[in-house]
């Protein structure tokens, strides 16, 4: 035991990471309990005020709706407390890791997935590749695999270009400690060349990068690779006239063989291994989208480098922090607790978030509190990108105490096979038929059949006994591209909420599949996300019932003078004040919080609701799982409005019709109230009964201000098209005419 007095002391001194509980837990728990009492009182109020039979059908309808909605809100609120109950933060101690020699470090395989050269331009993809190639990690232990589901020679061409540019970029990064490590992100930062350590070299690298980008874009624009370039790499011969995105043979090509002593950068240091893979695609063979690509990568990489750690990135997620591998290893290699950890997940951060995050793409509260709270139960969600996996757990191993210590991260000795042999052996593993009759997609690798393959895979890993870590450092490890338009953002949320509800309804439901395997808090934490879709219903009910009942003068809440008013007011105010305070302490602006409220209303009344319907339809066996890829580039015009935080509509999506119909409904009902106050002879008493609805509808109208602007004021291409406006006015007017009394 050496100089340490107790086991605990020794463990503490050798630990590679620390955990800390978030501050103010007790205060939060007390406060949250008080809101809970308020919610119970609201439920009680509803139960005590069941309308009598003679009060008419409309009253009954309203009552049932309000009761169900508030019951739903209450339940969802309870789930949300679970993820705030146990917030834990993780701190790696990377200096301690450096005490042991680099020889002890495991091999790391990086997987980058891309699927479409138009939606995901090759120049974007290679920035991700270059950023991971230049991470601070022994290059002979680093292998990078690009999976191209687009099967495109344009992407392969860019990949080859990147391998040449890397020879300059890697030494440059390491010498000057450049961050971020994506050349595009680095060179578009605004700084003065004269402030750089070596202006000449800086300019040289920048020009090299610019030239490469130009060459890549020229080829991408042209849509094919010129013959003279094709001669530079034998890999191009894979693309003949028959190769299409949906129909081609497996392609596996080494672009750099890290074992090759001649593969060195301009400073003479060895380069990491670089492999391109386009798994076989044939019509009639399901390819399971990203999950299928990842599983093929797992197999191909096991043949080639077999790194014990796998870093998984989407093609738009470049590395920002050069030490991120080492930090992740602190968790996975910790002698005492590391062997239980299957993966380390970073939050999704984006480099294109504007000041007030108009579409709520990256809410600080979600990253700093909610996800950390699920992580607090040892069940950090796997989010598909920015995640360091232990190969063993990703491949389906059950957790066992035997993994203790560092030995589990050892990998086999160098292979002596030639590149050609390795490529041939790998192609077999990347072929369509390989998975037939195997457990791939079921118990091995990523789980198939769900558009959120990441969440369900993380859950199954945890149910096999593993823990996971949610790690959110101040120096962000990765940055991706957030959806820059409302339409793209809503399509993404439709896929997510649909997929997540599908998990809840499947055998993987955390309460059933995870029973006795993960903690109750984790089951509840998962449900917060998995139940997005069905919890759209109470929101949609409120969004319709409030304005309509106001218009018809049907009170839904207790009068202000009644004692029952208190719990309603308390819950509403304290919940929202807390939410603002939480957002501000997490570094959000008030405006960003306000924007987030709007986008949540929009998501719940559109994306989640449509997902709910889609999911039910699929459960009935009427449709199949799809995956709509998120576009990462938009036109300049659109991008300018995004920068100015102006909401982008500009298409006739049915979601926009719903958004503007609900906005119109609010406007009509408020107009009705004004009429009542100024023209109608109604007494003050009538208005008093409706005051809660007036306030809520007023707030909704304020939240909808950008929608009204897009409907009536704006003339640009991002405003709401006249046809959508027309439809919404008709539908809202018809709704107002419904006889409710
Ligand atoms: O058939 C496919 C479809 C997608 N992808 C890749 O999957 C990644 C994610 O796709 P994207 O369209 O960017 O979806 P997002 O909604 O931005 O992705 C989030 O949500 C997905 C699950 O819905 C996760 O897989 C992702 O990791 C996570 O970032 C991208 O790199 C794609 O290239 C494939 O490799 N093959
Ligand atoms: Mn994405």
TrEMBL record:
SUPFAM superfamilies: Nucleotide-diphospho-sugar transferases (SSF53448). UDP-alpha-D-glucose binds at residues 120, 149. It comes from Herrania umbratica. GO terms for molecular function: cellulose synthase (UDP-forming) activity. This is Cellulose synthase-like protein E6. The chain crosses the membrane at residues 26-48, 60-79, 654-678, 690-708, 720-740. PANTHER family: X-BOX TRANSCRIPTION FACTOR-RELATED. Its main location: membrane. GO terms for cellular component: endomembrane system; membrane. GO terms for biological process: cell wall organization; cellulose biosynthetic process. It is a multi-pass membrane protein. The lineage of its organism: Eukaryota, Viridiplantae, Streptophyta, Embryophyta, Tracheophyta. The active site is at residues 149, 454. The keyword Nucleotide-binding does not apply. Pfam families: Cellulose_synt. It is found in: Endomembrane system. Mn(2+) binds at residues 290, 314. Keywords: Cell wall biogenesis/degradation, Glycosyltransferase, Membrane, Transferase, Transmembrane, Transmembrane helix.
């Amino acid at each position: 035991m050496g100089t340490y007095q107790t086991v605990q002391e020794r463990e503490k001194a050798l630990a590679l990471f620390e955990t800390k509980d978030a501050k103010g837990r007790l205060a939060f728990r007390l406060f949250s309990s008080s809101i809970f009492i308020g919610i119970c009182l609201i439920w009680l109020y509803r139960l005590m005020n069941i309308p009598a039979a003679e009060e008419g059908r409309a009253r009954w309808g309203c009552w049932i709706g309000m009761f169900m909605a508030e019951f739903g809100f209450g339940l969802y609120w309870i789930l949300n407390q679970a993820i705030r109950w146990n917030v834990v933060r993780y701190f790696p101690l990377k200096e301690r890791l450096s005490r042991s020699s680099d020889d002890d470090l495991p091999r790391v395989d990086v997987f980058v997935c891309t699927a479409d050269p138009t939606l995901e331009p090759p120049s974007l993809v290679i920035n991700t590749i270059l950023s991971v190639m230049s991470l601070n990690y022994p290059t002979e232990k680093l292998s990078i695999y690009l999976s191209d589901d687009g099967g495109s020679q344009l992407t392969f061409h860019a990949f080859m270009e990147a391998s040449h540019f890397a020879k300059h970029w890697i030494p440059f990064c390491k010498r000057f400690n450049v961050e971020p490590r994506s050349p595009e992100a680095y060179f578009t930062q605004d700084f003065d060349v004269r402030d750089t350590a070596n202006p000449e070299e800086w300019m040289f690298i920048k020009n090299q990068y610019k030239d490469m980008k130009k060459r890549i874009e020229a080829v991408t624009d042209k849509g094919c690779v010129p013959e003279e370039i094709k001669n530079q790499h034998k890999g191009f011969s894979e693309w003949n006239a028959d190769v299409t995105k949906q129909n081609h043979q497996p392609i596996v090509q080494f672009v750099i063989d890290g074992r090759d002593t001649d593969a060195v950068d301009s400073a003479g240091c060895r380069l990491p291994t670089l492999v391109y893979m386009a798994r076989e695609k044939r019509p009639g063979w399901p390819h399971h989208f990203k999950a299928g690509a990842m599983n093929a990568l797992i197999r191909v990489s096991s043949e080639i480098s077999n790194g014990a750690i796998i870093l998984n990135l989407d093609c738009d997620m470049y590395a920002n922090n050069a030490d991120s591998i080492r930090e992740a290893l602190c968790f996975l290699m910790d002698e005492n607790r590391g062997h239980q950890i299957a993966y380390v997940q970073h939050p999704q951060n984006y480099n294109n978030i504007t000041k007030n995050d108009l579409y709520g793409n990256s809410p600080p509260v979600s990253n700093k509190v909610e996800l950390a709270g699920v992580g607090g139960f040892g069940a950090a969600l796997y989010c598909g990108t920015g995640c360091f996996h232990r190969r063993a757990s990703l491949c389906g191993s059950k957790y066992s105490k035997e993994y203790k210590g560092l030995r589990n991260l050892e990998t086999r000795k160098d292979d002596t096979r030639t590149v050609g042999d390795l490529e041939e052996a790998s192609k077999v593993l990347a072929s369509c038929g390989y998975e037939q009759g195997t457990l791939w997609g079921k118990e091995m690798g990523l789980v198939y059949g769900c558009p959120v393959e990441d969440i369900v895979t993380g859950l199954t890993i945890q149910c096999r006994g593993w823990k996971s870590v949610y790690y959110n450092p101040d120096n962000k490890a990765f940055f991706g591209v957030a959806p820059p338009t409302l339409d793209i953002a809503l399509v993404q949320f439709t896929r997510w909420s649909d997929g997540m509800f599908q998990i809840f309804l499947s055998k993987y439901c955390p309460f059933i599949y995870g029973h006795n395997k993960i903690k109750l808090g984790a089951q509840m934490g998962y449900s917060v996300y998995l139940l997005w879709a069905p919890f759209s219903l109470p929101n949609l009910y409120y969004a319709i019932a409030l304005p309509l009942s106001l218009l018809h003068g049907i009170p839904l809440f207790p009068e202000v003078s009644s004692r029952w008013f208190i719990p309603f007011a308390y819950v509403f105010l304290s919940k929202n004040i807390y939410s603002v305070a939480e957002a501000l302490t997490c570094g959000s602006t008030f405006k960003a919080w306000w924007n987030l409220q709007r986008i949540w209303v929009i998501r719940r009344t559109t994306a989640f609701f449509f997902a709910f319907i889609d999911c039910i339809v699929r459960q009935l066996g009427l449709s199949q799982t799809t995956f709509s890829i998120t576009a990462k580039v938009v036109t300049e015009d659109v991008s300018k409005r995004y920068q100015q935080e102006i909401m982008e509509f500009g298409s006739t999506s049915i979601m926009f019709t719903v958004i503007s119909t609900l906005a119109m409904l609010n406007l009509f009902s408020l107009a009705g109230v004004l009429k009542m106050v100024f023209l109608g002879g109604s007494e003050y008493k009538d208005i008093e009964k409706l005051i809660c609805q007036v306030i809520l509808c007023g707030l909704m109208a304020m939240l909808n201000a950008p929608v009204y602007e897009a409907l009536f004021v704006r003339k640009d291409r991002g405003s709401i098209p006249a046809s959508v406006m027309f439809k919404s006015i008709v539908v809202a007017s018809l709704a107002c005419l419904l006889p409710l009394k």
